[in-house]
C-alpha cells in the first residue's frame, strides 16, 4: 500500500512538470504567432485589452447621463470654466472617461444642484454643521470637476515628461540601426504605457490615414504643453524641413532633457534645505530640549538624589 502511494505521488509530480512544460511551450508559440501577425498586419497584437469598466466608471457614466440635461445652463454659467478653457483642459487630460465640453459644463451644474439638495437634506435632518454644508456643498460641487480635470491634465503632462528620455533613447537606437521613423515608433511604443503611448499611437494613426506629417506634429503640439515634449516635436518639424538626421535629433533631445531634469532635482534639493532647517529649529530642537528638561525635573523630584530626601 505504501509503495502504491509513493508511485502515485511520483506520477502526480511528473504530470505536473509535463503540464508546466507544455504550457510554457504554448505561451512561447503564441507569442511568436502574435509577433508574426503584428509584423505582417502592422497591428499591435501585444496591446493590452480594454479592462472592464470599474464601478467608479459605471457610476460616473450614470451621473453624466443626467449631466447632459444641464449642459445648456452650464455653458451660460461658465465662471472659471469657459468652454475654450475646458476644451484645452480636456485635450491635455486625454479626454478622461469620454468627457466632452458640453457634458463637463452640465456636470458641474448637476453637482451644484446635488450640493444644494445635500445641504437642504442635512438641515432638515438636523445634522451637525448643516448650515455650513448648505453653503459649501454647492460650491464644492461646482468646482470639483474643474479641479479634477485640471489636476488630471497636470498629472498627464508630468507622466509624459518622465517617460520621454527613455523613449527618445530607444527610438534613437532603433533609428541608428537603420529602422525608419514610423516603424521605430510603432515598435517602441509597445513597451510604454500612459500618455506617451496614447499620443504616438494617435500620431501613427493619423499618418496611416494620410494626414500630412507636419500637421500631425502640430496636433501633438496642440494636445500637450509639456516644454520638453514641445521642444522635441518642434525639433522634429525643423529637422524635417531642413533635412537634419532624425536619429541625431532624438539623441540630442534625450541628453538635453536629462540635463534639465538633473538641474530641476538640484534646484528642488536646494529649496528643501531651508525647509529642513526650519523644521529642525522650530520643532525638533524645542521638543528635544523639553524632553531633556523634563527628565532633569523628574530626576530632581523622583530620583535617588531627590530634593525631598534632604528634608
Give the proportion of residues in helices.
Answer: over 70%
Biggest β-sheet: count, sense, barrel? none
Oligomer: single chain
CA-based gyration radius: 31 Å
What average pLDDT do the residues reach?
80
- Termini separation comes to 88 Å
For the secondary structure, the number of strands is: 0
Structural class call reads: mainly alpha
Strand content: under 5%
Task: Point out poorly predicted stretches.
Answer: 48-53
Count of helix runs: 11
What pattern of helices and strands is seen along the backbone? HHHHHHHHHHH
**General shape:** extended
Transmembrane segments: 6-24, 109-127, 133-151, 276-302
InterPro entries: T2SS_GspF_dom
Keywords: Cell membrane, Membrane, Transmembrane, Transmembrane helix
Pfam families: T2SSF
Structural overview:
The chain is an all-alpha fold and 311 residues long. 80% of the residues lie in helices and 0% in strands. It is built from eleven helices and no strands. It has helices spanning 2-41, 55-67, 71-76, 83-93, 101-125, 130-176, 181-188, 195-208, 213-223, 227-242, 246-302. Residues 48-53 have low confidence and may be disordered. It is found in: Cell membrane. It is a multi-pass membrane protein.
